[in-house]
Amino acid sequence: MVDLKTSLLREKFVIEEEKSTDGKTVAPLIALSNRISLSLVSPDGIDNETIIIRTHNMHSCARLAAAVAKEFQERGSIVNRATPISWKTIWANVIKGYEKNWNPKIWGALYYKGRAIFQDGEHHAFLDIIEQCHAASHQEYVQSVEFAEKAFAIAGKKVKIGYDSNVALVLSNKSDEVKCGVIIRTANGATTFNYTARPKEGSELKTMNAHTTLTVAAVFLEATQLAFRIGMLNKKNDYRLIEKYSDEDKQREKATNRLGNLNRAISNYEGQYNVNYRPDRPNFKEMVYRAEDFAVQALKPLIKNMLEEGELDDSDWVV
After folding, report:
1. Phi and psi, residue 233, nearest 5°
2. How far apart are CA 57 and CA 10, in angstroms?
3. pLDDT tens digit string along 3-37?
4. In terms of Cα–Cα distance, which of 2, 267, 9 is closest to 141?
5. What SS3 string covers 205-238?
6. Residues with Cβ < 8 Å from 136, sequence gap 6 or more?
7. Which residues, 6+ apart, have CB-to-CB distance to 227 below 8 Å?
8. Which of 233, 239, 240 is nearest to 256 (CA)?
9. Tens-binned pLDDT, residue by residue, of the chain (319 aa)
10. What's the Cα-to-Cα distance from 4 to each of 109, 151, 238, 241, rounded to whole Å?
11. CA distance 130 to 251
């Protein structure tokens, strides 16, 4: 499978129950997720499956989508196999290393026609319900929220479901060209850029594979988020808010190493293909510096409180 068009959505569902007869209010439930829909079609058209990927963060969503696309391209149908796919093994490879060690909340799930075919980690049960509603409604995905409200009402529970989403990744993969747009919003501003990639003339790599494109997109997504985290940790370290050899101290070192590896992966990709950016190639060092500037403002309330509590020497600080 080569041709693929998809996008990654960052989603937030707010589920509110109607007030009870005794006037008590129930706190709304919030379900967060990242979602990619993969339409997988074999060259002969015999295998035609849509797999939904949901995960805790953006880059693991794109990386798991890449693993699904690769499995389909190399071995055909995802759901109709004599020997079931070992999703547990595939997922372990997706999150191994930094993600596994430093993100205890990581989770992932795959769906086919509303049914979960793989789940690992803890996610909100409503996400399973919305996939079931989407499959049952046979309508556009955005209409699944209304369908879910009606389903709850039939079951005797009246709820109002708020839905908010934004697109973080738009991707088009053809055999001779890739187009990708990345839109990431963080606390210190938005990172938006587009890039195209084509095979280099005379290169042995003449085909742009969808799973490679999704993997590279995952690298950009992770590097952008990691740069922000590193900037925050760097400034906390500068302010002596991180103890030597503590978990945060170790994470800062591992995150910095990880970002370096991701940056090299992008450089390797640029060495294999003609890659053009608009407006510019992301500068992850600059992102770290911007995050450090943001951290100065974000940490001021914490520093002030620690000064008042006598945990810091006020002669060392100006806030």
Report:
1. -70, -40
2. 9
3. 899 999 999 999 998 765 566 677 899 999 999 99
4. 9
5. CCCCCHHHHHHHHHHHHHHHHHHHHHHHHHHHHH
6. 114, 147
7. 259, 284, 287, 288, 291
8. 233
9. 568 999 999 999 999 987 655 666 778 999 999 999 999 998 888 899 999 999 999 999 999 999 999 999 999 999 988 899 999 999 999 999 999 999 999 999 999 999 999 999 999 999 999 999 999 988 889 899 999 999 889 888 889 999 999 999 999 999 999 999 999 887 677 889 999 999 998 777 778 999 999 999 999 999 999 999 999 999 989 888 889 999 999 999 999 999 999 999 999 999 999 999 999 999 999 999 999 998 888 887 766 665 566 655 544 444 4
10. 21, 33, 45, 46
11. 35
Structure tokens that stand for 264 in this block: 């090299």
Distance CA 253, CA 229 (A): 11
Residue partners of 307: CB distance under 8 A and separation at least 6? 314, 317, 319
* Structure-derived torsion over alpha carbons of residues 129, 135, 139, 142, reported in degrees to the nearest 10: 40
**What CA–CA distance (Å, rounded) separates 208 from 174?**
7
Which tokens go with 133? Answer: 């509603």
Q: Is the dihedral of CA 260, 265, 266, 271 positive or negative?
A: positive
Strand arrangement of the beta sheet that strand 189-199 belongs to = 115-120, 108-112, 48-55, 29-41, 4-17, 159-174, 177-186, 189-199, 273-278
Q: CA 34 → CA 8, 37, 107, 113, distances in Å? A: 7, 10, 11, 18
Which residue do the tokens 């430093």 mark?
A: 102
d(CA 214, CA 198) in angstroms, rounded, equals 15
Write out the two tokens for 165: 């989403």
Give the separation between CA 178 and CA 216, rounded to whole angstroms.
Answer: 11
Residue carrying structure tokens 């060092």: 285
